[in-house]
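Deliverable D2.4 — example input (C-alpha cells):
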C-alpha cells in the first residue's frame, strides 16, 4: 500500500475499531444486530476512507443512513462533524436534529449543539423549543450560563426583533432571576420586543433597585415612558440622570430630546436631537428629528431627514412606524402585499478567473399573494425550468417532477439551478420596498421614487416609467465566486 494512503487508512481503521467497541455497548434502544455481525464496522471504515479521499458527501450520507438504521446518536453526531468540516451548515443542522432525536432525553450536549447551529443559521424561532427543553434540565447556575451564551449570539442576528422575541420566550422559562444585571437588562429589552411592557418595566425597576446608577436602565425606562406619553416628569428625571452619568451617549441624548418633545419643548428637543444625530447618525434618531420638524411645520426638512434615515437603515422599526403614521407623499408604506410581474432576466458572473465566468438568460413570472411568493423561471425558448414557492421560513422548488425544500430560497436556487438569483425578498424589491428582517438602505430621486436599494449584499438600481411602473431593475453584488450582474426587464410589471 502506498505510504500516502497508509496514514489515512490507519486513522480510519482506528476509528472503526473504536466505533465497533462503542457500538457493542450501545444503548438499549439501538438496533445492534447489524453491529454485532460486523456490518457497522465495515460501513464506518468505508465512510472514513471515503472521507479521507475527499468524498465527504458519501461519508455524510452513509453515516446518516446508519444512524437511521441502527438508531445510534453517535453516528448522527459524526455526520454532523463531517458536514461542519465541509462547510455545509444545512446538512450539519439536519444531522444535529437526528443526533438530538436519537439521544436519551437526559443528554444535554446534542441540544446545546442543535440550538447553536439553529441560531447561527438565524433560525431563532426554531431554537425556542429545544432551548426551553434544555433549560428545564438545568439548575439555576447552568440556566444563567446558557442564557449568557444566547445573549452573546444576539449580536449575530440578522433580524434583531425576531431574535429578541425568541430570547424572551426562552429566558422566561428560567424563573429564578439571574444575578447578572446585564442579562436582566437584555431580558427587559426582549420583553419590550415581545410586547410585554409590564415585564420590561418591572425588570428595569428591579435593576435600578439593585443599581440606581445604571445609565442604560435609567434611559430605557425613561424612554419607554416618554414614548408612550406616560409619567413624563418621571421619564424626564430618569433620562436626565442617565444623561448626567453618560453625557456623551448619543442614544441617551436622543431620549432627552424625545421626552422634551413630548413635553412640548420643540425647539430644545430639536437642538438635542440634531446634536444626537451628528454624534451618531442612526435611523431611529433620524426618525425623531424628522417628526419634530414635521410637528414644527418644516415638512421639507423633515422629509430630507427621513431620506437620510432610509439611507442608513430603511428597515429600522422606529423609522418605519413614523412614516406609516405620518404618511409623507413619497412613502410606500400603504402598498398592498400583492402583485404580479412578468419579464426577462440575464445573469452574468465575472469570476475571479476566466474559467469561472458564466451567464444565463431566460424569462420569469412572479406573483405575490399575502405572505406567499410564486416564482416561475423559464428558459429562453419559454419552457419551464423551475417553480419556486416561498413562504416565511420555507422555500420549495419543483423541477422535473421532483420537489426540494429548504429554509433559505436563495441557497435553494443556487444549489439546485446553479444560478445566483435572489428569490428571497424579490417581490418586495420589485415594489421598490426593502425586505423585512435585515438592514437595508434606500435612496430616492427627485420625484420620491426609489432609485437605489442596498440589502443582503445586493445593490439594486431602478428605472421607472412616467406612469410609475418599474421598467428595468439592475442587481449587482460581489461574492466568493466573483461579481454578479443581473438585469431584469419587465413586460407586465405589477399588474
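Example output (designed residues):
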Amino acid at each position: 500500500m502506498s505510504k500516502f494512503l497508509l496514514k489515512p487508512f490507519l486513522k480510519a481503521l482506528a476509528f472503526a475499531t473504536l466505533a465497533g467497541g462503542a457500538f457493542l455497548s450501545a444503548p438499549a434502544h439501538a438496533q445492534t444486530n447489524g453491529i454485532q455481525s460486523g456490518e457497522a464496522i465495515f460501513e464506518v471504515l468505508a465512510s472514513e476512507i471515503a472521507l479521507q479521499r475527499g468524498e465527504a458527501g458519501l461519508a455524510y450520507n452513509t453515516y446518516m443512513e446508519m444512524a437511521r438504521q441502527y438508531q445510534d446518536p453517535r453516528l448522527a453526531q459524526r455526520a454532523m462533524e463531517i458536514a461542519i468540516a465541509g462547510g455545509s451548515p444545512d446538512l450539519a443542522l439536519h444531522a444535529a436534529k437526528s443526533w438530538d432525536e436519537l439521544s436519551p432525553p437526559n443528554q444535554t450536549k446534542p441540544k446545546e449543539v442543535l440550538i447553536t447551529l439553529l441560531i447561527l443559521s438565524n433560525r431563532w424561532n426554531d431554537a425556542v423549543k429545544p432551548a426551553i427543553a434544555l433549560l428545564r434540565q438545568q439548575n439555576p447556575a447552568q440556566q444563567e450560563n446558557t442564557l449568557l451564551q444566547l445573549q452573546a449570539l444576539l449580536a449575530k442576528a440578522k433580524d434583531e426583533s425576531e431574535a429578541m422575541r425568541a430570547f424572551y420566550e426562552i429566558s422566561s422559562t428560567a424563573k429564578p432571576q439571574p444575578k447578572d444585571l446585564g442579562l436582566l437588562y437584555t431580558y427587559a429589552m426582549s420583553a419590550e420586543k415581545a410586547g410585554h411592557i409590564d415585564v420590561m418595566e418591572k425588570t428595569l425597576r428591579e435593576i435600578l433597585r439593585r443599581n440606581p446608577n445604571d445609565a442604560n436602565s435609567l434611559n430605557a425606562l425613561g424612554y419607554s415612558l416618554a414614548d408612550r406619553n406616560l409619567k413624563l416628569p418621571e421619564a424626564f428625571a430618569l433620562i436626565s440622570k442617565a444623561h448626567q452619568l453618560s453625557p456623551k451617549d448619543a442614544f441617551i441624548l436622543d431620549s432627552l430630546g424625545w421626552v422634551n418633545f413630548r413635553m412640548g419643548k420643540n425647539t430644545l428637543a430639536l437642538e438635542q436631537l440634531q446634536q444626537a444625530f451628528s454624534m451618531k447618525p442612526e435611523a431611529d434618531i433620524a426618525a425623531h428629528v424628522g417628526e419634530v420638524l414635521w410637528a414644527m411645520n418644516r415638512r421639507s426638512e423633515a422629509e430630507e431627514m427621513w431620506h437620510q434615515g432610509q439611507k442608513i437603515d430603511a428597515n429600522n422599526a422606529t423609522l418605519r412606524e413614523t412614516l406609516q403614521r405620518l404618511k409623507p407623499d413619497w412613502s410606500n408604506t400603504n402598498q398592498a402585499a400583492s402583485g404580479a410581474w412578468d419579464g426577462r432576466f440575464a445573469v452574468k458572473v465575472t469570476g475571479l478567473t476566466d474559467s469561472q465566468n458564466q451567464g444565463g438568460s431566460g424569462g420569469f413570472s412572479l406573483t405575490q399573494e399575502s405572505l406567499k411568493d410564486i416564482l416561475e423561471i423559464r428558459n429562453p425558448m419559454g419552457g419551464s425550468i423551475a417553480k419556486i414557492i416561498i413562504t416565511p421560513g420555507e422555500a420549495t422548488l419543483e423541477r422535473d417532477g421532483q420537489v426540494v425544500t429548504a429554509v433559505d430560497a436563495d441557497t435553494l436556487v443556487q444549489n439546485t439551478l446553479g444560478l445566483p438569483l435572489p428569490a428571497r425578498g424579490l417581490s418586495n424589491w420589485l415594489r421598490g420596498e426593502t425586505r423585512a428582517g435585515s438592514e437595508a438602505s434606500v435612496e430616492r430621486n427627485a420625484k420620491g421614487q426609489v432609485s437605489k436599494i442596498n440589502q443582503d449584499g445586493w445593490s439594486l438600481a431602478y428605472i421607472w416609467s412616467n406612469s410609475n411602473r418599474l421598467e428595468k431593475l439592475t442587481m449587482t453584488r460581489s461574492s466568493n465566486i466573483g461579481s454578479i450582474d443581473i438585469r431584469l426587464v419587465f413586460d407586465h410589471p405589477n399588474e
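The first helix runs from residue 3 to 24.
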